[in-house]
Design goal:
Number of strands: 18
CATH topology of the largest domain: Metallo-beta-lactamase, Chain A
Largest sheet: 7 strands, mixed
Shape: globular
Order of helices and strands: EEEHEHHEHEEEEEHHEEHEEEHHEHEE
Helix content: 10-25%
Length: 304
């Protein structure tokens, strides 16, 4: 199967600790790299994960809290020092360009490449990226400021040609693309050869949903239904549920409840509060509700 991987660069929350970096991730789809959020230290973790800066062209920022975007200026500056020439696209809620442009003008007066900002609305789901193999759609969340998660969905791939059957029915080459996309073949004599005789299905399309930061929000369930991998913030344990509600965050158990209702295949939890020396308490509370749960950690790579 083609590559579809998630790399964790940071999985801590706002208060720095010696255990975790602030939030940042890389989604690798067929060696195209997409960054989600860019907390401090993201570029260092990028290096530790043995990823290539040249393959990174799109950055998706969920919201404008510092632990999700303070690493952007340093990353942009590093790419400039490396002599980058390809455009860098940054997708975010309204306001990031206004905040970042003066600093870029001051610290990077001679840019070797263009930084292009794309703003999106956080109230309704919106497709913000598409290429031949992938779409990225926002997932409206509820936090203390406008915030969205992201749904990375692989496009359905064409069926695989069964070479022996195509040769047997003497199918012309110019018909193959139609057949890959589900069409039957009609012979010169007028006989219809069913597509399922000529092809076999491609591997199922895969999907990844990122949901951080947010209060417990059951309304996202339908949009993320059945995804192969869900990352959901799990900032607090059950005993700190009042604090989670106050700060518009989620407990590990609530994250697991979302995963259970959405019938996802696997749950990855992160955005851990600095108060927990051992996040296994969060893992235990989530696993009791949704067994296929894993703790995020720096440099972790998960195949989707």
């Amino acid at each position: 199967m083609e590559k579809f991987e998630l790399h964790i660069l940071g999985c801590g929350s706002a208060l720095p600790t010696t255990r975790h970096f602030p939030t940042s991730q890389i989604v690798n789809v067929r060696d195209k790299l997409f960054m989600i959020d860019c907390g401090e230290g993201a570029q260092l973790q990028f290096r530790k994960s043995h990823l290539k800066f040249s393959r990174l062209n799109h950055i998706f920022i969920s919201h404008l809290h510092g632990d999700h975007c303070f690493g952007l200026l340093g990353l942009i500056s590093t790419l400039n020092l490396l002599g980058r020439t390809a455009e860098l696209h940054i997708h975010s809620p309204k306001g990031l360009e206004t905040l970042l442009t003066p600093m870029l003008d001051f610290f990077n007066r001679q840019m070797t490449y263009k930084v292009l900002f794309h703003e999106f609305d956080t109230k309704e789901p919106m497709q913000i990226y598409e290429d031949r193999s992938l779409t990225v759609t926002t997932i409206p969340l509820r936090h203390r400021m406008p915030c969205c998660g992201f749904l990375f969905a692989e496009k359905r791939r064409p069926n695989h040609i069964i070479r022996e059957m195509v040769d047997f029915y003497q199918v012309p080459v110019y018909e193959l693309n139609r057949i890959k996309n589900g069409a039957d073949y009609v012979t010169p004599e007028g006989k219809t050869v069913s597509n399922n005789l000529l092809t076999r299905p491609s591997a199922p399309s895969r999907s990844y949903a990122y949901c951080s930061d947010t209060i417990y929000l059951p309304s996202i369930v339908e949009q993320i239904k059945g995804v192969d991998l869900l990352f959901h913030e799990a900032t607090f344990a059950n005993e700190d549920a009042p604090r989670a509600k106050e700060t518009f965050h989620t407990t590990a158990a609530q994250a697991a409840e979302i995963a259970r209702k959405a019938e996802v295949k696997k749950l990855l939890i992160g955005h851990f509060s600095a108060r927990y020396e051992d996040e296994n308490i969060l893992l235990q509370e989530a696993s009791a509700i949704f067994p296929d749960t894993q703790l995020a950690k720096e440099t972790l790579c998960v195949s989707v």
